[in-house]
């Protein structure tokens, strides 16, 4: 890979990436890399460099800048050739040498692998794609004419981040999602899906209260700053977390009774019956050996292998008397 536009525009030379110091040459190179192997007209380059208010010498200056850029690329010994075609310029190069082209292909690979259920490879591929970025797209170009191209690349990145979050949640990598998405929601404070995925990961780690705080902060921010409500995804996640949180609170006083505890309870009742019969004289004063034994603890707050049971014999929990 010789050309980078997923961050500051730079070109590989002698094993390392170098920036194009002249800002007009940098804009011309960026214009040719966002739509590679296609001719770019002189009028387009004028707009890229000066916008709607070019100088009267704009065409001549473009020619001078293109010549300087051609010499710069030649000195860097990159595999690309900048030529003139009538009233246009053409940068011919292998498109796989551009980081944005490679990024788009990796995004497609992630989708394919995820659909096949190969979540591990989908995750690794997404990570490789995201690692191609070193800042914002066309970060140091500053051209209104190229802003739509930069926006498209940023939107593609955010789509991949969301897909990466889905894959990692499906793999159970909640801790990884929390670490990475905490940074993303700081960078994109209005992005609802990123907040929702972060909240889900926190919830799966037993941090439901923090997850609710993430979503409630987002809701407050959108209302106060934009005058809008959160969308269906965030609302659905929020309702689910609230229900889970309230359910946990309502069960916080529950006491679990194990099958062994129920057996011991029955044994104790049998022993009490023997004692009562002895006291009332309705039974022989010499009960069988082992009829009365010291009871062991009957109630446990953890599950045995048979699972928890209600006092009536069904599965579930027995409520503690208030």
UniProtKB/TrEMBL annotation:
| Segments forming domain Bacterial transcriptional activator | 98-242
Q: Which residues form the signal peptide?
A: none
Pfam families, per the entry: BTAD, Trans_reg_C
Q: Which SUPFAM superfamilies match?
A: C-terminal effector domain of the bipartite response regulators (SSF46894), TPR-like (SSF48452)
Record region (Disordered): 300-322
Its keywords, alphabetically, are: DNA-binding, Transcription, Transcription regulation
A GO BP entry: phosphorelay signal transduction system
Cite the Gene3D superfamilies for this sequence: Tetratricopeptide repeat domain (1.25.40.10), Winged helix-like DNA-binding domain superfamily/Winged helix DNA-binding domain (1.10.10.10)
GO terms, molecular function: DNA binding
Instruction: Tell me the domain of life.
Output: Bacteria
Family from the record: Belongs to the AfsR/DnrI/RedD regulatory family.
Q: What is this protein called?
A: AfsR/SARP family transcriptional regulator
Q: Please name the source species.
A: Verrucosispora sioxanthis
